[in-house]
């Protein structure tokens, strides 16, 4: 009886081909901006995540708190449009924020079926605490830039975030633009 043939391939039989070369930094795809955005987002959200964790909240809670505080009286339909999430996704997060007195829900004046969302004092305080943590990081990063650097940064971020009409509407409503500003 002959011994089994020895394979030179270190992969298990039937396994997919292994690629050992890293993706290039530049070339067909430029991964540098992707990585910069990844790490910047991780640190930006990490500052708030550690605060949210104390409350048993996550990033969805943060987003809801942020937009309700920025636009008190926002309807649930408007919030769904801004966040681009389902009613089911919002429901659990919103219920927790309401039950723990961070947000209150009030029927609309003209249409009682409409539900308007308002921050409570507790919700406002948490939104400010979360924002302060993130503003410190932004200010530290911008301290390394000049006023001339801000316009292309803002133009880039606006272009990255403006695909959806809800975002463009928000930017316009809140006058988020660096066009013609000195």
TrEMBL record:
Q: Does the keyword DNA-binding apply?
A: yes
What is this protein's name?
Answer: MarR family transcriptional regulator
Q: Known SUPFAM superfamilies for this protein?
A: Winged helix' DNA-binding domain
Keywords, A to Z, come to: DNA-binding, Transcription, Transcription regulation
Q: Where is the HTH marR-type domain?
A: 30-162
Native species of this protein?
Answer: Jiella sonneratiae
Q: Does the keyword Acetylation apply?
A: no
What is this organism's lineage? Bacteria, Pseudomonadati, Pseudomonadota, Alphaproteobacteria, Hyphomicrobiales
Query: Domain of life of the organism in this record?
Result: Bacteria
């Amino acid at each position: 009886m002959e011994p089994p043939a020895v394979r030179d391939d270190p992969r298990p039989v039937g396994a997919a081909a292994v690629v050992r070369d890293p993706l290039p930094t530049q070339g067909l795809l430029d991964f540098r901006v992707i990585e910069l955005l990844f790490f910047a987002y991780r640190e930006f959200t990490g500052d708030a995540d550690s605060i949210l964790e104390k409350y048993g909240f996550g990033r969805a809670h943060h987003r809801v708190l942020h937009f309700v505080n920025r636009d008190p009286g926002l309807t649930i339909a408007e919030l769904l449009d801004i966040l681009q999430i389902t009613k089911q996704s919002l429901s659990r997060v919103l219920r927790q924020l309401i039950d723990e007195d961070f947000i209150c829900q009030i029927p609309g004046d003209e249409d009682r079926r409409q539900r308007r969302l308002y921050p409570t004092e507790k919700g406002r305080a948490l939104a400010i605490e979360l924002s302060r943590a993130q503003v410190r990081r932004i200010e530290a990063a911008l301290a390394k830039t000049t006023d001339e650097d801000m316009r292309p940064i803002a133009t880039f971020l606006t272009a990255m975030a403006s695909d959806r009409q809800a975002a463009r509407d928000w930017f316009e409503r809140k006058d988020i633009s660096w066009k013609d500003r000195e």
